[in-house]
Amino acid sequence: KANSFTVSSVSAPSWLHRFIIGKKGQNLAKITQQMPKVHIEFTEGEDKITLEGPTEDVNVAQEQIEAMVKDLINRMDYVEINVDHKFHRHLIGKSGANINRIKDQYKVSVRIPPDSEKSNLIRIEGDPQGVQQAKRELLELASRMENERTKDLIIEQRFHRTIIGQKGERIREIRDKFPEVIINFPDPAQKSDIVQLRGPKNEVEKCTKYMQKMVADLVENSYSISVPIFKQFHKNIIGKGGANIKKIREESNTKIDLPAENSNSETIVITGKRANCEAARSRILSIQKDLANIAELEVSIPAKLHNSLIGTKGRLIRSIMEECGGVHIHFPVEGSGSDTVVIRGPASDVEKARKQLLHLAEEKQTKSFTVDIRAKPEYHKFLIGKGGGKIRKVRDNTGARIIFPTAEDKDQDLITIIGKEDAVREAQRELEALIQNLDNVVEDCMLVDPKHHRHFVIRRGQVLREIAEEYGGVMVSFPRSGTQSDKVTLKGAKDCVEAAKKRIQEIIEDLEAQVTIECAIPQKFHRSVMGPKGSRIQQITRDYNVQIKFPDREENPVHSVEPPVQENGDDAGDGRDIKEADPGSPRRCDIIIISGRKEKCEAAKEALEALVPVTIEVEVPFDLHRYIIGQKGSGIRKMMDEFEVNIHVPAPELQSDVIAITGLAANLDRAKAGLLERVRELQAEQEDRALRSFKLSVTVDPKYHPKIIGRKGAVITQIRLEHDVN
């Protein structure tokens, strides 16, 4: 039994052990399946394999393993290379992409020690040729990394998105230009300006210079100017279909951003090169100047006073602009040393702003006095009063300026009083007395007929919200619906409660005096009457405090009803009294309903009728039509935008002299005058052309022609200019 069991060993380099075992033990499994009683043991680090089992089986297994070892030694090789362990992760690549590619390409096994060992030794095993190729590539990569450098480039975060480009287009171009350089942008949430470049030293330097030039161009092109333009002229600056703004953008090579139609902002922002931005600003301001009676006035105020006149976050200057009808006051750039302040706006408001500005500058020079007082934000509207009446009274009585916070200010309680000390103290006393009264909370009640309750509580209590906003946050409570109580409770500051009661009484009087009238305007004009997004109707409802209801649209309205006829030709005889509609009476789809006080309804009706477009005809000689239309319609488009009308020129084949102008009655006279003025200009040009068509031929010996032309045409050009001839 002892002789039938043996222990033997096979010499095999330890690095070959895993190839002998095979992937998931495949190679070894073939031997152990044939000879299950043989135990094969591999000892790590030793160049031998131990076999134990029945003598016959061990001998067979030994022969097979020795053959396997001999074959592997003939066709396998290994090499060990030293690479600094800090580069190992770069050799491996993202998710092992780099090392897996080398393994697959060269059919080798690459053993990189784990980070924890801090070992530099990398072992490559496999086909001798593949091992040498993998060794060469890995050493080249390592050498490149040793020559690699990392550079931090400071680029303002606001430019990162522009450099990356839409869907990464621009950064892809840079990466294609410098394929060996890795460019990393910081996460937007980090608010960091550091962009990291990594790659071969020379390539990183080239990429740095390229990106710095790119940033310099962006900085040059990101100069920005804010131009305040009165809101009503924004549409003229945009032009029909955006034609004007597009032309200014293209010709000045700038980016022009206008505020949203529903925002209160009047500021247009121009971005680009400084000279281009200033050219675009001049063009936009000239459009405004041409459209309205906009006066521009320069006031000289010492530069040292500018900051104090503007006030914290512009509060002081903003209060003057708002008080003077929204004029625009432009101070020179800080540090320019200029004393010139420009005021722009309607002539009367500009003069008012000039006086206020000079008065304020005078106060500042004599060291004006400032006091801050506090009042709950909900009291501010009540303190200011309707149309600013109450605060104007305090200002006129004392001569002090009172500044309330805007929505942007952090401290919403703070009210600032500026002026001469005695005036400020007097205004402070008056305001504090008013505020003290407001802090005195009372509860009161009034009687309101239940039939009117619904008006106050519909639309989620909009009317009550407006009353609360207007009168210092007073709380108005109506009885629950269903109860027949007429008692309404008001709670708040005594003055506010009294004012709110008075306002509720006025609303009730309006409701009791309310009438409903009809205004017939053909349905085809309804959209024009409403204006963009219903803006014209909203304005009329606000101005006249009425409600306006437009009818539903009828696609194919029927004007008359025929009585049904039976097949035998007799009347149906169902007793219905069917009459043909009166062709003169307005259709149901033309009737607009107006509700409100009688006199207000009548005024609103007139305002609606004034919005109905009217068409007039103007005689213009047919031969001038093409000049009026202009190149690609530019001439006629300009007139339509300027006068806010539609101009219809008849088709050339009609040979008609009549041009139709359609628009609001208020605009038609201006448009007609403008069109006739253009006709006069064109006729004058025609006469001038006819006079200029005179010709005279002079015979001059050709040898004198060069002398007459002169150097680079100087002599002939001088003669042309002097005598205005060709």
From TrEMBL:
<feature type="domain" description="K Homology">
    <location>
        <begin position="440"/>
        <end position="509"/>
    </location>
</feature>
<feature type="domain" description="K Homology">
    <location>
        <begin position="293"/>
        <end position="362"/>
    </location>
</feature>
<feature type="domain" description="K Homology">
    <location>
        <begin position="513"/>
        <end position="613"/>
    </location>
</feature>
<keyword id="KW-0677">Repeat</keyword>
<dbReference type="GO" id="GO:0005737">
    <property type="term" value="C:cytoplasm"/>
</dbReference>
<keyword id="KW-0694">RNA-binding</keyword>
<dbReference type="InterPro" id="IPR004087">
    <property type="entry name" value="KH_dom"/>
</dbReference>
<feature type="domain" description="K Homology">
    <location>
        <begin position="147"/>
        <end position="216"/>
    </location>
</feature>
<dbReference type="InterPro" id="IPR004088">
    <property type="entry name" value="KH_dom_type_1"/>
</dbReference>
<feature type="domain" description="K Homology">
    <location>
        <begin position="4"/>
        <end position="70"/>
    </location>
</feature>
<dbReference type="InterPro" id="IPR036612">
    <property type="entry name" value="KH_dom_type_1_sf"/>
</dbReference>
<dbReference type="GO" id="GO:0003729">
    <property type="term" value="F:mRNA binding"/>
</dbReference>
<dbReference type="Pfam" id="PF00013">
    <property type="entry name" value="KH_1"/>
</dbReference>
<feature type="coiled-coil region">
    <location>
        <begin position="417"/>
        <end position="444"/>
    </location>
</feature>
<keyword id="KW-0175">Coiled coil</keyword>
<feature type="domain" description="K Homology">
    <location>
        <begin position="75"/>
        <end position="143"/>
    </location>
</feature>
<keyword id="KW-0449">Lipoprotein</keyword>
<feature type="domain" description="K Homology">
    <location>
        <begin position="367"/>
        <end position="436"/>
    </location>
</feature>
<feature type="domain" description="K Homology">
    <location>
        <begin position="221"/>
        <end position="289"/>
    </location>
</feature>
<feature type="domain" description="K Homology">
    <location>
        <begin position="614"/>
        <end position="680"/>
    </location>
</feature>
<protein>
    <recommendedName>
        <fullName>Vigilin</fullName>
    </recommendedName>
</protein>
<feature type="region of interest" description="Disordered">
    <location>
        <begin position="551"/>
        <end position="584"/>
    </location>
</feature>
<feature type="compositionally biased region" description="Basic and acidic residues">
    <location>
        <begin position="573"/>
        <end position="584"/>
    </location>
</feature>
